[in-house]
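Supplementary Text 2. Reproducibility record for the structural model of the 860-residue chain.

All settings were left at their defaults, and a single model was retained for analysis rather than an ensemble. We include the record here because the model underlies the residue-level annotations in Supplementary Table 4.
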Amino acid sequence: MQVVWAIGAVATAVWACETARNPGGVQRDITPPNITLSSGGPGGATPATADTQPIAGGLHFNVNASDNLGLKTIRLTFSGGYIAGPLDSTFITEVKTITLAKSVTFPVGSGAGGLVQIVGRAIDGNGNFAEDTLWIVLSNVSALRVMLLAPSPGAVASTGRNLPVQVQAIQNEGIRKVGFIVSPAGAVTNPTTPPNDSITYSIPYADSVLYTDTLTVLAASGTFNIVGFAEDSSGRRATSGVVTVSVLSAANDTAPPSVTHTIGTRVELNDAITVHATDPSAISWIGFRIDTIGGPLAVRFDTLDVRAGNLTDVTRIDTLGLTAIIPQNQLPKNIIVRGYACDNAAARNCAYSQVGGVPRAAAKADTVLAVAGITRPLPGGSHIGDAIFNKNGGTAGELYLTNTPLSRVEIFDVASKTFGPGISTAGPFPVGIALWPRSSDPVNPDYGDTIVVANSGGTELSVIDVRAGVRRLVWRQDLPDFLIETYKVIQTGGIFLEDIEVFDVSDRPQYVATVCRPAGGPCAKDSIFALYSTTPTASSTSPFSGRATIRMEKLRNPAEFAYNPDSLFAHLFWEIAGDSTLTSRGNDTLRIEVRRGRPYNSTQVVLSACRGVMINMSRFGLGDSTFVRNSGDFTHAFFGEGGNVSTQFARVMSYSARGSLRHGAPTFLTCPTSSAGATTDAGFNDEDNGMTPAIDVSDFISNTGIRILSIATNKNGQTNLVRADSVYILDEGLRLKGTSCPLNPSGSACVQGAAGMDMNSNHDFAAGNPGTTAFGFAGDSTNRVMFVARPDGNIDVFDTFFYGKIASIPIRDPIVGPLRVAKDALGNQFLFGVTTTGLVTVQLPAIPNPFPIRASTRGP
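Retained model, structure tokens:
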């Protein structure tokens, strides 16, 4: 250390001489640039907070750099699960500030995947530089990943002592061989009989293997290297990182072992702690200690006797085991955590964790926040599209999650807090999911043991039986092809000609809800309808390229009616575009046909020119992620135009199953469309008065370009939530009643970067009324709440009538996917959220609401 400082002193002296010899007084640029790498998600600063990106979409991140005089080069280096670079972007003109959107695409079958480290270096014209590091998990089930789990970096050894070696390899098509290489080979001997440095497996290959061995050190001094390797089923080979082991003397050992520990800044009560200890005299005991701030005694002090292994490098991964020690009602709670180990020397030297793992260095203890929740990992390559809870499933209830890239439905059992075998018959690329209604009773609605899944990779809805022991597809509901048309009559030389322009639109479903008609009682078998949005395709005709539509489909098993198309019903909600019989410039006469292929083989006009519906076709299509959710009593549905929208503002729509539905023979019209009846049109004119016209979000959002991130609707459809730059509370008629804002730490603005939200499962309040409709407007105000995810890992709780924040629930990881709140069969209320590391489950206590149950009855 003294040598380094001496070099620094010489460098300073040289700089002083240069300054003194500068007669012109020109100051050299010594100001380094600024550079920031970001992935668009909330994490990435450390491996533990890395955002996940699927390899199919490529690796995407942004580079923001600046310099006081000018940038010369931006250099990027990739390592870990993807190795490349350095890749330079060099500027030949003055560039002081720049933002670069970087993308890396991968060919089919690429072996890249896993944790990727991206180091960005900004260099200015005088050679000054600055660096930033970004971590991204590149999700690729085809990647061959090899990890050397032991020994750990910084490991030490001594002659005659043992050293553990542990190599893990993962590849979805199977591992053929796994092992390790020691260099120089003579530094160790392998006491295993027979001695091996690898193992070869036979078919069928496992997709994940763990190879463990123990070496005896022969070297008396110096260092040696260990690297793990593996081969997949096709013979492709990959290696792990290299660990260098230092050989030290164990004679007269009076120094304590090197001890380090790894733990997150927020932990769940049963989270893991990793403790690493290394010492030339071998490790005899290893463990950890947990204290509370100011507490006189340790909350937990756990150690394990490992003397028998005679190992100089030991890593122990154990759970904190605090579930029975810290009650849920005391969370969140700060705890102090540190590792502990003793060596096997005659003096038995012991130590807690040290800074940098340097023996006798300053002690290192982490103060971490113990938070609510239990997180379970999802299968590799997962991306959850939607989730729904079934209180009748399993022992106490089940959560179903659509795993879009894996084309399956995951099943999470609430009682055991574990994932069971998923449903692989969920159809191609499922996104939306809904329950099958049995009753739309306003107080006690009920649903069956069946779910409806929207298959965005096809043109069908999958109806799936989720009973234990069954878990399979019942039928696939083929969705029709809707032809959206404009109808005109052109006169040429006294001849009238019909000009029907057909617009090609995607029929692939995306999000789905279910309702029961008529609303208010038991659901007849032929009166259950799916309301769904579509997945846009780029090939659709303008203005529908990349645009969605919303539709309705009666759910019927075709085996029950011998594929008679008369037993089916479909509707495209043209009502959202309005219904004007007044002609206006820029509007067109709308005409719609519905076509079903074999075995139905039918085509019908379901909206004819006779109806005289005039619309602006450019505003008919919706955003490419239009969300759909139904109320808990299956009487209402709510729609929000999310994703990329071409209009200045997104839109929301509401549907009530209590509205009249006109269809079939009574709506059939025939009419002349030109003078003297030279041209005519005819067809049915289906109309659903349950659908509201689309309401621009501009009615309640003052900022242009705001995207809808998520929506929610309550038990009876009387309160609707829209999450954009704030959370907007709307009534059944889509009138804005209030706004809630999860504030940033300074309280100056609403936080951005999180989408998930939901209401209390018993929320049956009408927006704008503090009492519940089911209990004579005098309900339980603790039910009048919503839960709003934040990007910092907290969940804010708001009152939906007074709009104020009443509580905050810290969890370990930010929720980045669906958030759902539901009650199990025992009456316990749970919050489920898809986080950066899996699915978190939080059992919610009764949260006191300081706001009154009802407004004052006193008159003015």
